[in-house]
Structure formats: C-alpha cells, structure tokens
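Incident review: delayed structure delivery

Summary: a single-chain prediction request sat in the queue longer than the usual turnaround. Root cause was a stuck worker, restarted by the on-call engineer. No data loss occurred. The affected request and its eventual output are reproduced below so the record is complete for anyone auditing the incident later.

Affected input:
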Amino acid sequence: MAGGVGRELGDDHGDRVVERGAGRDAPVAELPRSEPARRLPPLSEEQFERQVAARLERQQLLAQRPNTSFSFLIEQAVLERQLGGPEVTSALIDNLLTHGRRHNVEILVMPLKQPDHSGIDGQMYLAETSANNWFGYVEGHESSMLIADSKVVSSMLQRYGKMRSQALSQEATAGLLKQIQGAL
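Output delivered after worker restart:
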C-alpha cells in the first residue's frame, strides 16, 4: 500500500489482498521522476530520490508476493493527460502492461466516459491481512488516514466492488492501453 501503510498494518508480508481504487496517479515509478518541477512545496533532490526509491521498492512487492492479489483501478484521464510527456506515458503504459500480465495483478481502467462512477469521492486503498482483517486507507492533500472501523471498511469494499464492475475488463484495459500508447 501507499507510503508507510504497510508498516502501520504490521507489514508481516502476509497481506492476502491489496486493492487500490480510482487512482489519479499510476502505481509506477515513471510518473514521479517527471514530477519535481510541479511539486509544491518543492522537494530537495534527496527527498525526491527517497520517494522514488520507496515507490520502486513497493512496486517490487508485485513480484515478491505471488500469493497476494493486487488490484488497481486507474482513471483513463490519468493516461490521456500524458503527464511527463509522451515518452513517460509510453513507459508508464509498458509498465502497466507488464505488471498486468502477472497472475496476481489486476489492472483495470475506469473509462473516461462513465456516467456512473462509484469512486468519484477519490482514491482509496484496501488491504486484507493474513488474519483476514480488512483495513482502508485514504489520502488527501498533506494528510492521510488509516481506517480500521469495520463498518467504514465494509462500505469501502462495497464501493470498490461497484467500481470494478464499472471499469473496463482486463482484456479491454490492455487493448485501451495499447491504443493510447499507439497514438503517442
């Protein structure tokens, strides 16, 4: 999960499921490398490199935990925006397609034109521990919150399930990613 959430949950490497919904950024390292000039307040080079290293380290979990299911929903607008330019977007798409071929990773795109969107309130993260306990996590500007209240987490799980049904299938997502990449 994002940032230090794994540590907050105990990070026993026993997570069974990690899900991320309505992403307005993509779960890869290409984007943050293109961000320093847009970051406010600006980060020092050292802070920036630490953030990139942490994101790359988290990305390794996809391979290091083959028995953990990872599911990501990404907004099509994030890809269409071409943040960082066409080269960064192409690398981002390559990374998504590569990780999307893993048996334990599901990457779905929420289409740009979607009249019913259950994730409109923003991105969220969900994780199930090896003890079958679910936790939620949300981020905002300069803030984040770990959610353990079972009623709230249940609501988040329901919302995530609805979002998955509104997103493109894995096959349609891969086709759209290739289409966007081909148009760059």
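Verification: Residues 5-182 form a domain with the Endonuclease; Chain A fold (CATH 3.30.870).
Action items: add queue-age alerting; document worker restart procedure.
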